[in-house]
Specification:
mainly beta; three-stranded antiparallel sheet; 1 helix; 6 strands; globular
């Protein structure tokens, strides 16, 4: 299992780990939001969220 906190500036780290499953970030109300493709569709990740990548490749947000 891998846990990566989203800081709003570490999009490259997510791209390195998840590749094409990560969309370019966008800005909304002063926050940087990242969209990640999961088994359930796209999920928005906000600054301060922790993305958990399980050993089977599934992704969840804490």
């Amino acid at each position: 299992m891998t846990k990566i906190p989203y800081t709003g500036t570490n999009q490259a780290e997510f791209k390195e780990v998840l590749g094409d499953r990560v969309l370019d970030p966008y800005f909304c109300m002063g926050l940087t939001i990242l969209s990640i493709l999961t088994d359930d569709g796209f999920v928005n990740v906000q600054e301060g969220d922790i993305v958990v990548i399980d050993d089977d490749g599934s992704i969840r947000i804490e």
